[in-house]
Amino acid sequence: MSALIITTVLGIILLYLGLTKNKAILAPAAITGLLITLFLSLKTWGHGSKYFHDMIIIDNFSVAFNVSMIIITILIFLFGINYYKRMELHVAEQYSLMIFALAGAFLMTSFSNLIMLFLGIEILSIPLYILAGGKKTSYRSNEASFKYFMLGSFATAFFLFGIALVYGASATFYLPEIKTYIAQFNGNLPPMLMVGLLFILIGVAFKVSVAPFHFWSPDVYEGAPTLVTAFMATVVKTAGFAAFYRLLSMGLLPLPAPLKKALWVMTGLTLLIGNLGALRQTNFKRLLAYSAIAHSGFIMLAVLSQHDLSASVLLYYTFVYSLATVPLFIIFILVKRASSGLETLHIFQGLYKKKPWIAVFTTILLMSLAGIPLTAGFIAKYQVFVLSISQGYLAISIFAILMALIGIYYYFFVVREVFTETAESNPIIVSKLNAALIIVCGVAVVALGIFVWNVPI
Amino acid sequence: MILLIILIIPFITGLSLLLIRNSAILKLVALISAVANLLVTLSLIFSASVSSYSVDWISFLGTKFTLGYDGISLIMLFLTNLLFPFIVLAGFKRDQNQTPILYALILFTQSALIGVFLAQNAFLFYVFWELALIPVYFILLLWGGEGRRNITLKFFIYTLTGSLFLLFGIIYLYQLTPGSHTTDFSAFYQLNIPSTTQVWLFWILFIAFAIKMPVFPFHTWQPSTYTMAPTQGMMILAGVMTKMGIYGALRFLFPIVPKGVLYWQNTVIIMCLIGVIYASVIAFRQTNLKKLIAFSSMAHISLMAAAMFVMNYYALQGLLFQVISHGVTIIALFYIVNLIGERTGTLDLSQMGGIKLRAPNLAILLLLVILGSIALPLTAGFICEFLMITGLFQQSVWFAVFGGLTMILGAVYMLYAYQRVMLGDLRAGFERIPDIRSLDYIFLIPLIIIILGLGIFPQPLFNMADESVYAMQNFLKPVADSILAIIR
Fold it and tell me: Do B134 and A394 touch (CB under 8 A)?
């Protein structure tokens, strides 16, 4: 709880620090604050606690996911030091909005009540609507913001409607009570409850961009400022899936058959659309957007497999995925600057010639996303397949494996560009801090692939 | 412990090569490391005690880092460590860009291949299996010839397709193991999988190996990849990586899905024999020397695959013998092809002729290697092809007939190529072709000694694999007997 309070206060402090016009202190202040939060979160590991008449339950599950999201946010802020140097206005707002979003994410990992989940999602989303429009003068950034806002509100409306219907049927917001209420029907749910649950799932599926509710994400990812995109693709996704898992495990498992079928179809569609979509992309940001959708598919596979290890695999997967994705966005920013604002895959050409070490680590990060052995991404996918195959979902596992193959294809498309020579000779400028961070992430990705942990949550 | 040392020497050397700037010294260091590894391997082969190495890796996924070996692994290990000194040597006194990275990648490949052959845990096997592919991908991408961007990607995806199915198979077997699951081979061998499952699981496991070997119709990545590959990359691919497929099939298919093997046995043998004929005919029609050798290699490998699925003692011994013999012959052939290419600037058969007049020593050495390749008696090639065809004969006369065609067709196209390249009138522009240098002797003479030596005195190699071949054969025998009993 103290972590949540500190985070909220931190956001406000940052806003005031913005008034001092001294940009240099913003990032250190934000990172220090987050480190304190990290420390406080870690201290609550093993001591579960409940707040507000059990509307918030902080257990090891929420602590683990909070820690993972804080680490990724710190990483993004560290990269932000360099990124925001060029920006004159509203830097403090950017930092504090991300921190407010993080506070919402904390709620999404620790709710036990549908209202709390709704609050969490809204607190997470509203800062993002603003952040997506962070480049005020950019047409595409405005489009992204508007699109995200419209579709997001629409999804929220569905979600709220679903909550209302479920409340109408069961007369409670509490997930454990909803669970017992559902259990008494033995799978034959009354229509109102069924529709309500379906709407709730749709609302959450929109947030984690699971097909067929994914249409917003490529456009928003492309239009939003790249650092915000990195935040959306990692922290927001982690929060969304943590919420999804918690919703299922606390309230809805075992899933009624029609819902289960719907979710499996969504998983298959997500895998298909994410991977096939990425295959055709020439814009790197859109490629990563579709890759994010594709990874959602794999994560869904783990969530739906309902195994003791599901939560831990979910944590591992989202963490290593984020750890590889954030630096890739940063490398993209760097090469984009060197090629006067282009966003195609070709801008990666010549990276190996100009910055061999960055190229090597780019390759490692891409290999992790592709799931090549000795990277954490491989172990993550391996664990997902272990879950799904051992629960007997053979057909969808084979399908997912074929999709993973397509994934390897488009990631290696980028790898190939990295190692292709080009006549273009604009230097790629990588600050020392950024280079160090990229290398740390690359090493971490390999280290996590060799020394694999299993958090008991 | 000695196994760990063998595994790690190339890797550590590869890393340290990245720090060396002088390319001559760097190649020498790489060579010393490869030779040292060969010596350690030989000491392992001749030592009486059996060594193994095991530590826990990811305990909750049941994976251990277990290294060990049997006769079959030993043959493969020997082949790898025998060939890599030559593969390194093939780059001596040649201009290559970015030598540190090239040689580091070559040595990384060696490490990964050794890992494949020593792994006693399916997960570990898979990790090394994939790891072997990555450095080769970059060798092909960075030092390859024309069209490498697309061809390497095709090669990479093609081989990964098989691997991912293998991964599915491994996980499927993993969750079948009793108790707290494990991916140890020994646990997999204890599984009693129902025959209906074995019938489909066979293909899940086999595709990876079929692509790697490659077996018809999974070979389509091969010709273009071989054509554009740099010499050393091609030696790794044709000399060692094809054997990974054979080794994997021996390790996975026969012990784990014996009923599946028996069910599909004839289908696969027929596929392989189609491959033999197909590759031979295409080799005969080739005008490019490099492609011709590539297809001849495919014909040999297809025969090996066919012999493997016959699964009797003769065929298996012949197969393991051919593993060494083919590896040695093919890298000698590719080396000479490269020499010819360097000297004449072309590999087109119609542009060549009369090189013997200018380079008689080269011609003699090429002839010796070709004789080994077409399995003339007193060369290693003869012994293994003879044994494999004997094995095929025991299964069916027709298999032996079609398998025997490799020997005949091989002689036809290889001698034809020799005639086109070496004999005849000297082509214009070839007047200044130099004969081979001392370095080339150092490369070729040992290989030719191995080819002839094993042809004259093959017994040691047979002894090496004897026990394991019996063991391997025994995996199938009870199943085959029980099926026979049902038929009767």
Answer: no
